[in-house]
Structure formats: structure tokens, C-alpha cells
Description:
The structure holds two protein chains of two kinds. Chain A is α/β, with parallel strands linked by helices. Chain A contains 14 helices and 17 strands. In chain A, strands 1-14-13-17-15-16 form a six-stranded mixed β-sheet. By secondary structure, chain B is of the alpha+beta class. Chain B folds into three domains: 36-94, 3-methyladenine DNA Glycosylase II, Chain A, domain 3 (Orthogonal Bundle); 104-197, Alpha-Beta Plaits (2-Layer Sandwich); 199-275 and 283-301, Alpha-Beta Plaits. In chain B, helix 2 packs across helix 3 (58-72) and helix 2 (36-44) packs antiparallel against helix 4. The A-B interface holds A 32, 85-87, 90-93, 313, 322, 326-329, 338-344, 359, 363-364, 394, 424, 427-428, 430-431, 434-435 and B 121-122, 125-127, 129, 131-132, 135-139, 142, 144, 212, 216, 309-312, 314-315, 317-318.
Amino acid sequence: MKLKTxxxxxxxxxxxxxxxxxxxxxxxxxxxxxxxxGQNLGAPPKxxxxxxxxxxxxxxxxxxxxxxxxxxxxxxxxxxLKVDDAPDASGYRRPAVFIDVSGEDxxxxxxxxxxxxxxxxxxxxxxxINKVKEAGIVGLGGATFPTHVKLMLxxxxxADYLLINGVECEPYLTSDHRMMLxxxxxxxxxxxxxxxxxDVKKAIIGVENNKPDAIAHLAAMALSHPxxxxxxxxxxxxxxxxKQLIKALVNREVPSGKLPIxxxxxxxxxxxAFAVYEAVTKNKPLIERVVTITGLELARPxxxxxxxxxxxxxxxxxxxxxxxxxxxxxxxxxxxxxxMTNPEVPIIKGSSGILIMPGKLSSRKHPxxxxxxxxxxxxxxxxxxxxxxxxxxxxxxxxxxxxxQIMDCIECGSCQYTCPSSLPLLDYLRLGKFRTGQxxxxxx
Amino acid sequence: xxxxxINALLLLGLLGxxxxxxxxxxxxxxxxxxxxxxxxxxxxLPKANCGGxxxxxxxxxxxxxxxxxxxxxxxxxxxxxxxxxxxxKQVAAILELEVADVEPQIAVVRCxxxxxxxxxxxxxxxxSSCAFAHNLFGGEGGCQYSCLGLGDCVVSCDxxxxxxxxxxxxxxxxxxxxxxxxxxxxxxxxxxxxxPKGKKDRRIFVSCVNKDKGGIAKKNCEVACIxxxxxxxxxxxxxxxxxxNLAYIDAEKCKLCRKCVEVCPTNSIHEINFPxxxxxxxxxxxxxxxxxxAARKAEKVVKEKPASTEPEKPSEPTA
Lengths: 444, 319
């Protein structure tokens, strides 16, 4: 059988799934946690604690008041040291809650912190959405869009499919892969709950064919869950992109500038499904996530269950320390991740992996002139012309970039990856997209 | 044969005649009466089309000048920074008006985060555009307000007035600057400011835009303004304001007494084109502080810059 995939473009970077066989292990709590407030897409939540307050694990410490915002909970038991600015992965200082961890976890009331599988499904739609909202769950694939907003369909819209993203097309990263192997039961329950919230009859889990163990495991599980199916996908980057996954799984195309619900789809990550399960059946807020730490020269590439706010340096330590001659520490995968300026920055809800790149592999090649080979146009999964958009952005012709649909760019980096002249195409596309977006917003 | 030629001539002649008549009436009907002074003013302007006056091009500025002259009989608020007072006098003469002298301005780079003062902890190798780098990360040395040194201001300058100094990594403005403001707009970090040129080209300004608390600012950069308010207290003319841990000198009120320069513990207040000051032997506290700071700075220059090839270097947890 021919495997499904998306139609336009795509590239095949080397996979390097070094940590695929490393089971998820619990990372011990550090002495201090730095919990940034702005961990979700949209407005950052407002802090509810102040210096000196005692907090319990899972206690609400910041409430998301805006429509697109998410609650934030204390990832450990301890004392609030201060609410102050702390540098994030990009080096900018943003508000965060500093928590001095006092030791053993003391869970806030009503949270079930056991590993038992709860297969209850008798929750109403509102109950599920409310619990997801209370738990501060955001899309764990990296975009950190608040999940409760996704589950509340706009009036008049009907979803046909719930698509579960287990693609993990980024090279190196294996956190979703391990989740699918170790938490498949819970993920299935989470999907069932989301299906109830969205009132859909069908859910499809898309998994790339380079994870045959996960596909087999999930397919066996899915037999006992009506409506849920597993689809193996041809390996191609960026299949994990929302629009690409919809095209691959149900052959529908999201119109430019629209959300997946326009074509009756809601896409969610496997990690998010797990978080939804824990939030709804166990009242457990999103205070920890699975993070892959990997790298070619790293001693022990691993998958850790990490509390939000743990400094990345602790993960590196647990994985065998920073290897000699490290060039970059990348927050995310090699294609879309960004190099960090400081390893003391904390893990946030959107961190799916940390990649340690050796120096000799990490530096960029010197850019050469464009030779008009059109490779970037061929690989662009959105059908754009990256060379043109980069040029227009460089010339600050933002009206033209808008006409050339720069806002459809998903910043997957395929163009820059494939460019034989090593041009910084994505850099200029990101700049152009930012400026064009600004221009469009100012117009309104 | 002849007939064909004659017919053709007649036909074309007739056609031409009819068109001429139509065009004559059209020209009468749609005649645009333009004030001849617009052309004259336009002629007097420098034709740099830099937009420094705030209008898109010299022609448009000429139109605005003439309009302003006929509507409110004044040229107040209109200034061609390139031509300066001489050109504005000419324009005023054409429009038979008086114009007040405007103090000439110059672009000032308010960051002194040189390689020595603000050593790099990471190295950036993306697109060479300040606008992009600003969106991407906080800066190589950790100060999120500092000059990124990628030269968007240099690219934006039409007058060859701003260049990158390779030794310091900061842009330097030269005398060709006409204060058109292109670099001010180009700088994503709002470091460049237009300030009055000052008497004898003498200027005093705070060469820092860092709004972090003192400790954080100082840790990243030797010469950051730490918001200690010493200059604010010493200023006899109320020219200094403090906001967000940052001092700002109002050039209008500043009388160039240089007291603030003396007390600044981090040397973040700069004096330009002043004669070397006499060494004060009778010690005011400020002079001591200034000397000590100068000595510290000299010592700093000797220190070797840490290698920046290793992008990630753990920094101490923030205080």
C-alpha cells in the first residue's frame, strides 16, 4: 500500500533519532524553578502570587484572563522567591515566578497524582473544556496555543475529524515517540475525551513510518476504541505541520489565512491528548512534560519527564554534561528550533526537545549569490517562492510580500535547508512575515 | 498614385486638425493652475528626497511650504534638515515670509557597548540585518537594549554619514549627517536619537538606553547607565530626568556644564568636542569618582576580550 503524505514540497533531513530507545525517566526536582508567565500563545496570564507566598504543587499561580490565554500552576512545592524578569531562551528578559523548592511534593487539593488508568468517559462537553482550561493546557507540539480555545468550536462550525499529531517529523526529537509507546492507553483516553468535547465521531492518529513500533502499538490499542484509527505516513518533513498533516490524512486543504476548522478538522498533539486525559480524569494541571535531550556527541541522549521551570542546564547535566566543543544548544529540533543564548533558561510548556550541536556541524556556510535553481520553490510545502519573498523582505517591500502570500509561510526552514547557496532565506522570511503582519494589523 | 498621396495627406491633416481642436478645449477645461512659487521653492531645496522634513520628497515639501504660506502666513514647524537655515531663509524669501533659525541637529548613537565594554557571550551568524536579529534574540553580550552592530543604520543612510567602526562594533556618525532621521527609523532598538548639534559642536548625552536594573545592566556592560540618579541630583538646570532606571538629558535645558559627566560612576555620560579638562587637584567627590572610573576603564581596555567562539557560556543565576 502506498503511504499517505502531503502533496507539495518537503525535504528529507537525516533522522538521527538517537534517543528513540531511551525510556522516559523522571528528572529530579532542582533547587529553584523559574516559571515564565508568558508560556502560551496569546496574552500572558496575570500572577496571583507574590514574594514569600507558600505554594503547593499544582496550585494556580497565574490566571489567564484574556480569551486566548492559559492558566499557570506551580510545578513544585516551595516558596515564591520573587516575581521578576528572567531571561528567556532568546535572551530577552520577561516576567517569571521564581520558586524555591522545599523538597517533597505536597500536591494541591483534588489532584490525583497516581499512575492508575482511569477509563471514565462520563464527562459533559462543558466539564471537559472547563477542566482543560483550569489545567492551563496548551498545544504541546510547540505552538502552545491554548487547548481549551481549540476545543470550543466557533459558532456554526462543525468538526468532522480530530487529527492527532504523532508525526514528530523534526529530526532528533523523540518525546512524542516515547509517549506513544509508554502512555498509549492514556493518550487513547485523552483522544476519547477530546472527541466528546468536539462532538466528532472519527479521530485519526498520524504517525510517520519511521516509528513502526509506535504504529503497531497504537493500532493494537485502537481496536478497543471505536472511531479511533492509526494512519502510517510516508516520512517527509514538515509532515507535522498542521496544514500538511490535514492534507496527508484527510486530503483537505486549509484555505490561506484560515484555521483548520474551516475544513472540519481539529489537530492536536499526542502530548496534548495525554495532558487532557490527566487534566480531566485526575484534575492534574500541566506542570510537567516530556523533553528530549539529544545530540550526536552527548553521552546519554534521553527523554525526561521534566517539571516546567527546570533550568535546561539540569537536563544537560543529567544527560552526561555538555560535550567538549559544543557549538550550539538548540531549543527545539534542528529544523525549526532556535539556538539559545544561555543554558540557565527554564523548560517551558512548549519545549519539546533540547539539541546539543557539535561546533563543527553547527556553523552556517558562507552565503553565495542565488543561482536561480528554484530548489526552494520546489521544496516549499506551502507552494511559496522563498527566494522571491526573501528578496522582497530584504528590500522592505512589504506590500509585495503580502501579495506573494508571505503570511502563509509556516517557517519550516525547508528552503534554507535545501538552498545550495546557503542563503539565509528563512531569516528574511521570518523578518518579512513579522513586518508584513505588523503592517496588516496597523491597517485595521 | 498622386491621388492616394493627396487623400492620405488630406485625411491625416483633417484628423490632426480635429484632434487639435479637441485637445485645445480639453486643455482649457482641465487646466491645472499651480502656484509658480512651488517650482521656485522646489528649485531652492537640496533635492535629496530624504524625507527628513517629514514629507515624501522635496517636491511635496515645496507644495506644503507654499500651502502653509498662503493659508497661515508662516513656515512654522517646517524645516529642511538637509539645507538647514540657509535654505529655509531662501524659501522664506521666495514666499516673502520670515523664518526663525532652527538649531541644526545631528544623529547621536546612544550605546557604548563596544567589544570591550560589552563582551560577547554568544556569536550570531544569521542574516546580517539588525531588524531580524532584534526579533530573534537579545544580543550577543546579554544586553537586550544594546546596538546589534549589523548596520541597518549604515544601509539606511543616503548621505554617507554613518559607518561601522570595526574596532568597537558600533556605528559612528560623521559631519556629513544632515539629521534626516533615516537611521533613527532604521534602528530597531531606538538607540539613535537626533539631538541639537550644540554650540561649537559640543554635546553631552547619556550613551545608554538600558532600562534594566543597575546590577543586571552593569553585569552585561561596563558602561551602562545603572540608574543611580547621581547626575540627576547634581544637575543645576533640571535637565536630567530619570525613568526606568535610565537617565536622559534634555538638550534644550542642558547648559553643558559637565557636572553630570564628572559624577557618572560608569562613564555612561559622554561629552563630545570639549577641550580636555584641567585635572582638578582640589578634590570634589565627583572628580574622584570620575578619575576612578576613568582608571577602571583604562584597565578594562587592557583586559583581553573573552573568546566568543563558544556560543553558550553559562552565566551566573540572575541576582
